[in-house]
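so my prof wants the structure for this chain in the tokens format not the other one, which i didnt know existed until like an hour ago. anyway here's the sequence
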Amino acid sequence: MAILVTGGAGYIGAHVVRALERAGLDSVVVDDLSSGHRDFVRPEVPFIDLSILDTKGLVEQLSRHRIDAVIHLAGFKYAGVSVERPVHTWQQNVGGTLSLLEAMAELGIGAIVFSSSAAVYGTTDIDLVTEDTPTGPESPYGESKLVGEWMIRDQAVATGLRHTSLRYFNVVGSGEPDLYDSSPHNLFPLVIRALSRGERPRINGTDYPTPDGTCVRDYVHVADLAEAHVTAVRRLLDGDELEPVYNLGSGDGVSVRQIMQAVATATGVDFEPEEADRRPGDPARIVASGERATRDLDWKMRHTLDDMVASAWRARPGDATA
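here's what i got, hopefully its the right format
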């Protein structure tokens, strides 16, 4: 039995591969390294340098490695940039998922866990987002993730494909000393890079209607997220019925200022963050419930905010710029 992990050389994907290994499950990674890192994948794990847009290549490789199920994380993940590059975003995310589903259908591979996004909800004034909260994506990235869910759902109706989609917000921390978030846009790596360069991290907006005036967001540890993906794929392989979507939420948000304070504590660097104006479109609070995932996927917040920050700091690359 082997599980294909698309995007398995990326920050989240590499953690999923390590979690599969701990669970005693064999994995195969396909990644075109457009944002992933080859050294995130251990030598003993089969690695395929391939774009998932290459349907013919996917069919050949999935057949060669006798794939039984797929965890699909590959995609263009930058919501803000997707507004500037909508065609590229749709091509990579919608086209890539379509190509993957075509290859799976040709080979009769009957189970998929889709890494979706809480970006499908858009801006909402609901205190706690659930799976029943209406979707309203506000970027091509969020739209592409929602369309991906729809395509998988429709394929399931047509072929009996077993599936579930996992929606989550901000993934942080590190579960392995050699795996780190190299995103040029995410808060944690931005703060770490700034401190490593002797600069002051920035808070965008301090006048929101929140307890300390800064945005409140849902942060989850990457290792906890990876375990949920593994539980989901195992249940699908066992023939269990899962909900079509799950929120992997904390149920309790953290403010940007709280993160800055936790970073100062974890790093021992005493700093006062730079304060800037709000960014357009940033809602005051977005937090999701994870109750449904707790019920079906053993979803738990096993790491505290201090754990998240400390692990991210320990795993930072040497120059904090990679």
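also thought this was worth mentioning. The mean pLDDT is 94.
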